[in-house]
TrEMBL record, chains A, B, C, D:
HTH tetR-type domain boundaries: 17-77
InterPro entries given in the database record: DNA-bd_HTH_TetR-type_CS, Homeodomain-like_sf, HTH-type_TetR-like_transc_reg, HTH_TetR, KstR2_TetR_C, Tet_transcr_reg_TetR-rel_C_sf
Source domain of life: Bacteria
Protein name per the record: TetR family transcriptional regulator
Single GO molecular function: transcription cis-regulatory region binding
DNA sequence: CATGAATGAGTATTCATTCAT
DNA sequence: AATGAATGAATACTCATTCAT
């Protein structure tokens, strides 16, 4: 039975995975499909094969599910940015790799990302504040890299670093509006192109 | 009273402006403030100083108000893009100006833009299809400009034109997430910076 | 039809009476029968022959219905007390009559009274505050009468007037716990007995 | 640890007292604070520092806790009334002392009393019947004392004994609505005043 | 043109209780 | 004796929309 559980849990699938994981998987899929407010708690628990009581046993509110989805994506991206920031590679390389990496991980978690950009404002005000604070931390980490490149002369200083970050992340956010897994380009190709555009824009 | 009307009508304000305009103004403000689904029809009619009957006299549904907001913004931007596309100026200049202009008009209509990016998926499927088609037309108009520059050799062909357009428009969509009217930069300055980043990225 | 309405409205009956009155009548009966919290909004609207939407069109919440029931009783009793307070009769007579009258009107509105004493604490805190303030005003009006009698020497001063009022009103509150319309004594007989007990206790 | 237990057990406190007692103490406090229906089983077990399983091990239902609170108070008051009834003192003295005593014990157990008068109707019908029967027994015991006084001529027969009992017990029930431990009068003073009012009302 | 009372299906959330361990 | 995950039915409340006037 332990092995059955382990097997089914691979993707948070409905069979024998732990209930909270099943709920998160169902919520993520449904929020991405029809949006947060168009998804009822009833639909989530039906998709997860549990009852409402079980959901509220693990999550305080529908809002909590949304917040957890954000947390999952934010933690992942922050972790990866930290790795690039702390690397020994030349700044130009670190920025290019970080810029491409965030594209790849966004595409790999496109449902989470779509939910993020569409539904953040439906979070309760206090949770929204928390998310914004974490988001800002991420933004500032990236900005620090850009500024480092500008100070060392490998990047143009024509544009304030803040704007550069917003420019790049606008395109990252936008991915969930147009990227289709069955499209012409692989995630890595898209990532390389977008990172390339950023690097070219930063040439002195 | 005629003067009072004229005065209040400046911004679609509540006093004596035509009822449909007052409804649109109220809906736009409220949708931007609290989101489409968090705004009730009751709140809209109260803010507009009319009754529900009046709203349903002019608009078929709440959904229609949203669709109308989209139409207003899309028509404006398409019009302006067409002007740049049809101009006699060198291609580089036309792209730079179009790229900057869409930033300025987006900031000038930041409420509309915020609603656009947050609430498009809350439109009814058929209206969503309509909007997407118009959006695609706009996208293709812009892509044609990029391709013209690539063919004539003034823009690098390293990145497919489609991706370039998505890159730039990602940052335009993103504006409503970070731009604040009381911020450091004027709309025109932001527009110049973002257009500059695009042009630098396109350098051969 | 206007006459039909008028006829049916006599007791707030369900037939043609105005919807708010029908709702109040249904709520009063059900709250008295099974208590506030054991009565669902669904049951109220069914008993009134309307839909939930109609209830919430006229009342902001279930709580509002309760508050309105209190208001109705409080206004009635305050009005009558004011009449006795302002009368020209000798103080002893005024107190006896007021003391008896509150018993009669309590019995005449026994459902309201029962709801009052059982369910007041289930009101929202702010509404509870309002009710308590009005109740205190009533209490103080009655206390003033007692004190007037004490000062003029017709009532004993052995007991503080406050306690006297609480003593009498305890028995008034208690009425809904034991009085049955089909019992041995008429409302007026009960009232006379209780007023008599008060007057005897107040003899110097 | 044994001493810690002993200390905390003084008031049925949470530390080391037996689990059922801790549950009763927590339930009593919470029911008095926010009412029976506004208190969840979860809150009770948290306040008692145990789990739901433990509660249902000792009590059949939430309802049982309420019933037990009633039983505790009723047993105490019946016991004390029986003592006065069986005493050798003159009837006037026995009534005065019983009337005062029930006031003191009500104030000493004000939480129990408040729960009693507010929440009796929230008991299940059959338990309610039981409680009412015990209450009636108490009422009749007190009435017998009044009647004894009336027959022996020391009390007026102007008022039926039943009504006299209801008059006095109305004020006892009412205590939990106004008595505050930090008020002007001690429990004994209040008791003396209320007993005095009763005795004065009964003067022939 | 405009009203606003009324609808009815829908929403998130709560909670006493059970039961496998 | 005790846990705590899970149930499932019930709850108050919302809201876009309709329609007789």
């Amino acid at each position: 039975m332990a092995t059955a559980k382990a097997k089914a849990a691979e993707k948070g699938g409905p069979a024998g995975a732990p209930v909270p994981r099943r709920l998160m998987a169902a919520a993520t899929r449904l929020f991405a499909e029809r949006g947060y407010d168009r998804t009822s708690v009833q639909e989530i628990v039906e998709a997860a094969g549990v009852t409402k009581g079980a959901l509220y046993h693990y999550f305080g509110s529908k809002d909590d599910l949304l917040h957890e989805i954000y947390g999952r994506l934010l933690r992942l991206q922050q972790e990866r940015l930290d790795a690039y920031a702390g690397s020994e590679a030349p700044i130009e390389e670190r920025v290019r790799e970080a810029a491409a990496d965030v594209v790849v991980t966004t595409i790999d978690n496109l449902d989470d990302a779509m939910i993020f950009f569409r539904s953040m404002h439906q979070l309760s005000p206090d949770k929204q504040k928390l998310v914004r604070a974490e988001r800002r931390r991420y933004h500032e980490g990236f900005r620090a890299l850009i500024e480092e490149g500008q100070k060392s002369g490998v990047f143009s200083t024509a544009t304030p670093a803040d704007l550069v970050v917003d420019y790049h992340f606008g395109s990252v956010h936008h991915l969930s509006s147009w990227y289709r897994p069955d499209g012409r380009l692989t995630p890595q190709e898209v990532a390389d192109h977008l990172a390339d555009l950023l690097m070219r824009a930063l040439r002195p």
